[in-house]
Amino acid sequence: MNIKFIITILLFMSIYLNANNTKIINIDNSTSNINLLSNAFIYIDRTKKLDFKEIIDKQIIFKENKKNILSYGYSPNFNVWIKLILHNSTNNTIRKIIEYDNTLTTEVIFFDNNHNIKFTDGLLHTPKDRKTTKPIFDIILEPNETNTYYIKTSSNITTLILKLNLWEQKDFYHKETFHQLILALFFGAMSILALYNLFIFFFTKDISYFYYVLYIIGIIFHQLVYVGMVNIYLLSQDEIYYIIQYAAILVSFPIISLALFTKIFLHTKQYSRINKILNIFLILIPISIIIFSITDKFNQYRNIVALTLFSYLLVITVYSAYKKNKQAYLILFGWTIILSASILMLLSGIGIFDFSNDCPYIVEFSFITEALIFSVALANKINILQNEKDKVNQKLIKHQSYEKEKLKINVEEKTQELHLLLKELNHRVKNNMQTIVSLIRLQSDGLSDKKYKDIFLVIQNRINAMSHLHELLYNQNNISTINANEYFRILIDEVKYSYEIFVDVNINIKTNLKIEHAIYCGLILNELITNAFKYAFIKNNNRINIIDNVQVGLTQENNLYTLIVSDNGVGYEQNKITTSLGYTLINSLVKDQLKGSIDIKSNNGVTVIIKWRDNE
Questions:
Q1: pTM of the prediction?
Q2: Phi-psi region for residue 12, left (φ > 0), alpha (ψ -120 to 50) or beta?
Q3: Three-state DSSP class for residue 121
Q4: Spatial distance between the Cα atoms of 165 and 101, rounded to a whole number of angstroms
Q5: CB 106 within 8 A of CB 124
Q6: H or E stretch including 111?
Q7: What is the pLDDT of residues 327-358, one digit of tens each?
Q8: Is 138 helix (H, G, I), strand (E, B) or coil?
Q9: Is 225 left (phi over 0), alpha (psi -120 to 50) or beta?
Q10: Cβ pair 62, 21 in contact under 8 A
């Protein structure tokens, strides 16, 4: 009884095991886009020594699998064999494509048992003629044919994730064309954003733009490897192998660039403790890159280290937003999107959650959205900086206006002080000259010789010519110009009083004089009027019933001044006037001081025309 029971149990177990190992997948012409792995059998070779012949000869027992996707994590120490049994349920020959839906598996070997076909593919064994992003294997089934296929997979660099799909050829290439088109649009958009921010960096010299460009470049290259386009369009197998050996750099480069961007963009220096922790990360990440590059022991933690830094960047952004840092709001939104995508990638990488069916381009969409948000944030930074610049300029303008007003007040105060000082100076000079004149007059009163008395009188009038000028300056507020009409009348009255002569003097003054011109013109006029009063109106028979007069005129046309002094006297002899002291003084003042010209005419009197220019 017991023996029969045992035999029965063994029989049922044998039937069960035989049934599991002969599970057949029926396909026809319409079969397309179905998951094969859930109907496959799995065997794990932990020795990594079994070949296809040994698998067949030793009748290795495969275990039934019911999952659509299998993930073994970082698995350099074993190979995974997949067994598929396909049956053509039609009376026609059918062609299908088996798609190995993972771009990063190091080696994938396909075996066709009936047709003695062996085909190798994978990240480091990509055929030169393959133009699909993932390994594919063409199969042909004759009418009602049943065939068993084996796939050997191994991955000693990246995580080992298994997923198999069966496609009708037309459907597959349509799907693949659309897939590569979407990827091309993604990489094109990312490249445009990189160029856009690079140009802004060249114009603004803001290093945060440069770090962000490095981040985008890192993301582009990472995704080119991740989606399988780099090995079919850009690099050779040797170059890919070299890059994969330093995959830690590939993963960490965009994260480090992003950390540097965050450090500058959010001004983390204002948060001392947070900034110190970020600096520690920026030191530890390169150290971890070196460790991952020289040993395979910690490769499974590579993504976790990068994700930890990324999470800390999110913490920094949240804290900055909490501190009312306006730059952090857009960045926080971008962080949330990209962190969500990174978590999905991590979950997919370890086989917990496969988002490729429901959201096949969620990662690319997340990167594009995040890049656009960051670009907007960077553009907004320009506006913020421009507004800050405008505010600073407004403050500067107000400060300049205040300083200008303050300077104006100081200048006015100093000018007033200087004006008072100059008035006092003119007053003292005038008093000193008057003292000198008084002394000369006292000395002259003691002389009996008319010739010497006349010499002293001439000297008095010359000194008075200067003294009256200082007196006028003392009595007026404007110290840059002098009222020529008033000044000339005082001089002429002084000379008339000195010589006690009746002569009509007509004054026609049409301009004022600058101080530096007035003192020379006063001396010149004093000499000319003195000469006229002394020599022009000698009484003789030829001048009966003639009224003696002197004409004094001063005009200005643009910067040309003209002083004319004329009389209707007896004229002069040329040889006498050119040797006189008065003429020498006048000539010197006109030519050396005023830089002008003098013209003397004797025709029914004497006319002296003096011209000079104001060169200032």
A1: 0.60
A2: alpha
A3: strand
A4: 7
A5: yes
A6: strand 107-112
A7: 788 778 877 777 777 777 666 655 566 656 66
A8: strand
A9: alpha
A10: yes
